[in-house]
Design goal:
It holds the Pfam family LMWPc. Belongs to the low molecular weight phosphotyrosine protein phosphatase family. The chain is 41% helix and 14% strand. It is an alpha/beta fold. The chain has a single domain, classed as Response regulator (Rossmann fold, 3-Layer(aba) Sandwich), CATH 3.40.50. 43% of the residues are buried.
């Protein structure tokens, strides 16, 4: 049974699709399953934002097949690790947890780069294209650290 990792942001069209694509590209597909979701329901069924698709494509990733979905309580049952993009996502997801074990599954993704600093991946949705490039670089580095840990802990 594969190890399952979920990436979560607000709308599931900008940050978490990039994080999903990046992490999945760094892990063996037969051992790990990576998915993404949003805390909000505005983009359920939608493709990732064109700017996310474009920055991913420029870096050799195709995330165009992904479709937005909303985080649900059953995700705690279905995923071993849950990474969120910012403090608001962290609060929203942890508030849905039914117990401490579920709360403990939820981590800020940038804690992989800056442990204990509670840093957010900025939401690039309302910004310029440069914001997507910056988010991509952050997530590329963070998912590299996550992939290394996962491969070490689940050989």
């Amino acid at each position: 049974m594969p190890v399952k990792i979920l990436m979560v942001c607000l709308g599931n069209i900008c940050r978490s699709p990039l994080a999903e694509g990046l992490l999945a590209s760094k892990l063996p597909k037969d051992q790990f399953l990576v998915d993404s979701a949003g805390t909000g329901n505005w983009h359920v069924g939608s493709c990732p934002d064109e700017r996310s698709i474009e920055v991913a494509r420029r870096n050799g990733l195709d995330i165009s097949h992904q479709r937005g979905r909303q985080f649900k309580t059953s995700d705690f049952d279905n995923f071993d690790y849950i990474y969120v993009m910012d403090a608001s996502n962290l609060r929203n997801v942890q508030n849905m947890a039914r117990n401490e074990q579920e709360r403990d599954k939820v981590k800020l993704i940038l804690d992989e780069l800056f442990p204990g600093e509670n840093m957010d991946v900025p939401d690039p949705y309302f910004g310029l294209h440069d914001g997507f490039n910056s988010v991509y670089r952050m997530l590329d580095e963070a998912t590299g650290n996550i992939a290394d840990k996962l491969k070490a802990n689940h050989p």
